[in-house]
């Protein structure tokens, strides 16, 4: 199993009773419908950029996991593979900094990709402490296979925005993230 694949959880057989013997799935759906219909006062959270970014991220990740459930892909791992593919020979530390991933975590990710045959690691002659990364043919194939679904996911995730609003949002997010 590749480091890019996370096994899907196995559903339990039959309905799962919750409090009072009700079906959790049905209860959760009913609660979600009720929650959507009843607006809550959020006080200072109404104007909190971080709070709304978090809510948007949760929605985006939920949609990503639903779209890629059968593939077992995770957003962070796919972003690492895509970025390596766009920047062959990128140094691991540069990649970690650009994607805001701790170096120790990036090392584990790269080790998993290497073990799965998705990346090649090379130590450059000018800096024996550095590691340069390049996708293998299998890594390029993995990214290429994911891209149609990724593009569809991106289109759907911005479906509530006009094209101009999407561009503006991306510009503002890049500005906020220092990019």
Describe this structure in words.
By secondary structure, this protein is mainly alpha-helical. The protein has a domain at 75-145: Winged helix-like DNA-binding domain superfamily/Winged helix DNA-binding domain (Arc Repressor Mutant, subunit A), CATH 1.10.10. The chain is 56% helix and 6% strand. A three-stranded antiparallel sheet has the order 1-3-2. The chain is elongated. The two termini are 34 Å apart.
Architecture blueprint of SSEs:
Blueprint: H1 24-37, H2 49-67, H3 75-86, E1 90-91, H4 92-99, H5 103-115, E2 119-122, E3 132-135, H6 137-157, H7 163-176
Antiparallel strand pairs: 1-3, 2-3
Shape: elongated
State the CATH superfamily name of the domain at 75-145: Winged helix-like DNA-binding domain superfamily/Winged helix DNA-binding domain
CATH architecture of the domain at 75-145, please? Answer: Orthogonal Bundle
> Termini separation (Å)?
34 Å
Cα gyration radius (Å):
20 Å
* Helical fraction: 55-70%
Question: CATH fold name of the domain at 75-145, please?
Answer: Arc Repressor Mutant, subunit A
Q: Which runs of at least 5 residues are low in confidence (pLDDT < 50)? A: 5-24
Sheet-strand content, in percent, reads: 5-15%
CATH class of the domain at 75-145: Mainly Alpha
Number of helices: 7
InterPro entries: HTH_MarR-typ, MarR/SlyA-like, WH-like_DNA-bd_sf, WH_DNA-bd_sf
Domain HTH marR-type: 46-178
Region (Disordered): 1-28
Organism: Jiella sonneratiae
């Amino acid at each position: 199993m590749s480091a890019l694949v996370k096994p899907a959880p196995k559903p339990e057989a039959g309905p799962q009773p919750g409090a009072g013997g009700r079906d959790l799935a049905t209860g959760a759906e009913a609660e979600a419908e009720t929650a959507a219909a009843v607006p809550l006062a959020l006080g200072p959270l109404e104007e909190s950029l971080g709070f709304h970014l978090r809510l948007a991220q949760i929605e985006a990740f939920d949609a990503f996991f639903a779209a890629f459930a059968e593939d077992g892909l995770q957003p962070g791992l796919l972003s690492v593979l895509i970025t390596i593919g766009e920047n062959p020979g990128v140094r691991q530390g540069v990649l970690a900094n650009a994607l805001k991933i701790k170096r120790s975590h990036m090392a584990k990710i790269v080790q998993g990709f290497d073990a799965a045959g998705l990346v090649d690691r090379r130590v450059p002659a000018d800096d024996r402490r550095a590691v340069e990364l390049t996708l293998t043919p299998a890594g390029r194939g993995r990214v290429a296979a994911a891209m149609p679904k990724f593009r569809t996911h991106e289109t759907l995730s911005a479906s509530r925005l006009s094209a101009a609003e999407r561009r503006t949002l991306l510009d503002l997010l890049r500005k906020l993230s220092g990019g």
